[in-house]
Amino acid sequence: MARVRHHVNPLKGAFHGTRPAPVAGDGLEVEIGCADAQFLFERAAADPSRRYVGLEIRDELVAQVNRQAQATGAPVTAVFAHANLHLEDLFAPGAVARFYVNFPDPWFKRRHHKRRVVDAALARAMASRLGAGGELLFQSDIWDVALDAMAALEAEPGLSNRAGAWSFWRGGNPYGARSRREAWCEERGLPIWRIAYSRRA
Questions:
Q1: 143 burial class (0-12, 13-18, 19+ CB within 10 angstroms)?
Q2: Domain segments of the chain: what residues?
Q3: How is domain 22-199 classified at the CATH fold level?
Q4: Which is it for strands 193-199 and 159-161: parallel, antiparallel or unpaired?
């Protein structure tokens, strides 16, 4: 089995020279940084009527997810893409019903904070691709990563915090699916910081 890289520098020039083909359809559920897509496969098992798309910058994992989807018949597709660069190229305005950002790489060192996935540009792109009433869920077990994400999402006028401005979601994961990291944290009783947003009318 090929060795899968745990971390990839999203600022590498190699990602800036590619543009993935658009993803057709609407009512899509999209996970940014899907890794092995355990979350999406569990969502697909719960509701196979929807289409699920995982964006991932590690091509080894994209191939792995698509092989699993083909073998099981799950309505899951992984796309090799850099979400911060390609989101608006991939999806038509209003085409996405839900975005998920599950436990993104924390990039702990201060000089690496610019590599964190949720920034103002991504918040704006997600808001523009969500349909009316569309939803966004962010989850992390790292407090300052969650705060950074909240700052970017709160500043986006197209999004409304479902728990109230500058508030974390207290109701647990509302979607009946868990990423591998989420399951690991819950089994150990570790805190998980969740933020839930809706697309403003």
A1: exposed
A2: 22-199
A3: Rossmann fold (3.40.50)
A4: antiparallel
Residue 173 φ/ψ, nearest 5 degrees? -70, 115
For the question of residue 105 being annotated catalytic, the response is yes
- Nearest CA-CA partner of 196 in 180, 176, 173: 173
Helices 38-46/59-72 angle, 10° precision: 20
Which pair of structure tokens corresponds to residue 180?
A: 């591998």
Average pLDDT over residues 14-28: 82
Which residues, 6+ apart, have CB-to-CB distance to 185 below 8 Å?
141, 191, 192
Q: DSSP letters of 90-132?
A: HS-TT-EEEEEEES-----SGGGGGG-S--HHHHHHHHHHEEE
Say how far apart CA 64 and CA 12 lie, in whole Å: 23
Which residue of the set 105, 141, 144, 148 is catalytic?
A: 105
- pLDDT tens digit string along 108-118? 345 534 657 89
What are the structure tokens assigned to 190, written together?
């570790």
Model pLDDT for residues 137-192, shown as the tens digit of each residue? 999 999 999 999 999 999 999 999 999 999 999 999 999 999 999 999 999 999 99
- pTM for the predicted model, two decimal places: 0.90
What pLDDT, on a 0 to 100 scale, did the predictor assign at position 13?
52
The pLDDT score that the predictor gives to residue 19 is 78
From residue 27, give the alpha-carbon distance in Å to each of 51, 69, 91, 141, 200. Answer: 8, 19, 11, 28, 17
